[in-house]
Each structure stands twice: as structure tokens, then as C-alpha cells.
Amino acid sequence: MRSPTRQTENTLTPALRYILPMANRSGGLPLLMLIFITWRDSMRCCAVTADPPEDLAILDPGRLGRLEITWSPPSSLISITKCLLQYQLEYFNTYKNRWETLRTPGRTYSAQFDLSKDVQVRVSTILNGECTNNTVIKSKEYTEVVKKPPSTGIWDTEAKEFMCVYHNMENLECTWTRSLKTPASSLQNLYFWHKSLEQAVECPSYILSDGVRTGCNFTGKPLPEFIDIYFCVNGSSSEGPLKQAFFSMQIQNQVKASAPDKLYLQTSSDRQLEFYWTNPAGRLHVHCLEWEVRHHHVGADGKISLNHIHTKTPSLTLLFSDSNERHCFQVRSRLNSYCVDKSFWSDWSHETCHPVLENVKATLEPELNFVSVYIYIAVAIIVTLVVLLSVWATINMRRAGLEKKVDSLLPKLLTKHFTQGVSKIYSGKKIWTDVTI
């Protein structure tokens, strides 16, 4: 019976047969045997190859870009039993403008795409297990499908400037503008979809501007928060279909809070000015809000300053040193980054001031008087000029009227007298007695 060492030697290459006796004499035989076993297993592993998946397909179930990706295992690996068969899926996320990669043992996957752009998907095969000696092997090639967007629709007629505003987290409105190349007879439609819906749904109530659809009001039809919602604006016209436009968002990131409606301003005994406010009642929690205060200050010397102050609490305290100073405040609010990714600022609140206008009327009166004097002088000059022009025009008109009257009467008088004289001559009573020159 041969020894294990002799059997191993028969499988060695000539170079290893030369090295083995030397390693045995130097005491390094165990290490060399380990290297050989690892090399032999790696050679056995590399004998297994992985082919890419087959029958890659992209299906559109009518969910505004939510596509189903399917594939089949490579036919060369259907009968494999001692390995875990997985797949590496890569697709280009058109909303984030980057490649997404994931590994899955399944053969289907659902992902969202912008259907107005190319849909790019590729899948590779992954093997790992006893058949590969627990070494992960990936197919050298992948199966790829590129789906082009539909070529239908009049060029450059898609909806522009699409925007959704979630007013006070109670009422959602989405608006858009028409392209300049959109035919006047066009009718645009809005559809939306999210995971809770089987199919896309049309806008429940359109917003009209001069009879044209420019938005959608979702009042009474709330949409879910913290979930991707997909919108599509398409349309038709007498010249043909319009280009489609696709959009995606989560509505909690579109909130516009109402402006603070109750402002309070008071002074304390230690010459502090305390300003605080409240937002209208609603779904917005105070801990999710932040505020910006616009502070307009007029000093006792008449110097004016304007400051914007950010705060995470609905109050502000300032020191004031002179009773002749004037402080005016406005405030607006929005959701902070702890609750949402982004949000819109509310409108500015009404203004509140200290002291009130009646108390500073005396301070402002000199400045107002100067302005009034300038206005009065300007008005007086204008009135004087108008009166002078009117008088001048009246005098000229009267002069012209008198001259015309004299010129018209003189020939009539001469003609009358001359006629009377001639008639008397012919009657034999008197000659030229009534003629006056």
C-alpha cells in the first residue's frame, strides 16, 4: 500500500516533485501541502462557470412608470443543486440620475422609471456554494435591455413647471404651465399612482384658468404621506397627442404652512421687548416648525435697520433702550428638516409694532410736514399755471371773435346804406342824403 505522501507526489508537477524533498528535509512540508490543497481546490472551483440570465423582459402594467422586470436562469445552470443561484440586477434610476444595484434570488423585480427617458436594465448571474467551493462567482457577461421612450406626441408640448403645494398639510394642489408650442385646442389631463392603487387615477377636480386646465385640486381626496406618488400630465389636440411628462414626489416634502395669525408684543419692567406668536390650528405640530422673524427697527436718531432672525421657538426677546425707538415685526414659518426633507416658507404675517403708530405720530410729524409742504407747493404751481393758461386762452378767443364780428358787419352796413340812397334817387325825393362814408 502506498503512503499518502507517495500518492500526493504522483499528482505533482515536475517542479513540485523537485521542491517537495527539499521542503521535507527543511521541515516545511506541512505548509507546502496546505498551499497545494488550496491550489487544487481553486483549480476545481474555476472549472465551474456562470452564464448570464436569459429572457430578460420589461413589462408595463399601466402604473405610470412602475415597470416589472423579469428574467430566467441560464439554461446551463438549471440542473445545478449544490450552489445558491442569485442574480445581480442593475438599472438606471432616471429620477436620481444614477445606477441602482441589488442582489436577489428571485427572478422578478419592480422599479420606477421616467417613461419619457430610456429605461436601462441589466442582470448578471451569481453562484456560491459547494459547487464553487464556497467561492462567489459572477458571470463575466450580463444580459441587458434598453427600452426607448415612445415617439408619439407633438414635439415640445409637454407640461412645464409642474409643482405641488400641500397647504398646511390639509389641501394638496398641483399646477403646471403650458408649453408655448401647445395648440390652443389642447386638453391636458393629470393622472397619479401610488402603491395603494391598482391602476393610475385621473385628477378629481381640475383647476381652470380662462377655461384652460392648469392644475388639479385634491381637496376631499387625500393622498398618502411618506410614500412615492407618481404623476403624469398628457393631453390631446386636433393636431395630435401631446408629449407626456412624468413627475415623482412625496407630498410631506411639499408642505406650505399657513402664516402665523396671532402676534403678541409686550414690554417688561427690565426694558425687554417680548414678541411671541401662534400658528393657525391644524395638523402641523409645533415641534416640526421653525420660524423667520423680520425685524424693522427705527432708532431715536432716525436710523433704520432691517434684520432677519431664525428661531426654532415661537418667541423672541429683545432689549430696547429708548422709548423713542420703534420696533416692527413680521414672522413666517415652515417645517424643519427633522420632520421632512424640504418644505416651503409660509407667507409673511401681518405687521405688529411697538410703540403703536399713534404714539410715534409726534416723532414722524416733522418729516410728514416737510413732505406735505412740497406737495402743496407743487399743487399750487400746477393750479396757477392752469389758471393762467385758461385766462390767456379766453382773452385770445374773445379778441378773435370781435374782429370777426366787425369784419362781417361792415360790408352789410355799407350795402344797406348804399341801397337806400339809390332807391331815393330813383324816387326823385332826395339824392345821397342817407349815404355816409
Automatic annotation (TrEMBL):
TM spans (from-to): 373-395
InterPro entries the record matches: FN3_dom (IPR003961), FN3_sf (IPR036116), Ig-like_fold (IPR013783), TypeI_recpt_CBD (IPR015321)
Segments forming domain Fibronectin type-III: 259-356
Name of the protein described by the UniProt record: Fibronectin type-III domain-containing protein
Compartment annotation: Membrane
Keyword Manganese: no
Protein keywords: Glycoprotein, Membrane, Receptor, Signal, Transmembrane, Transmembrane helix
Pfam families for this protein: IL6Ra-bind (PF09240)
Membrane topology, from the record: Single-pass type I membrane protein
Keyword Phosphoprotein: no
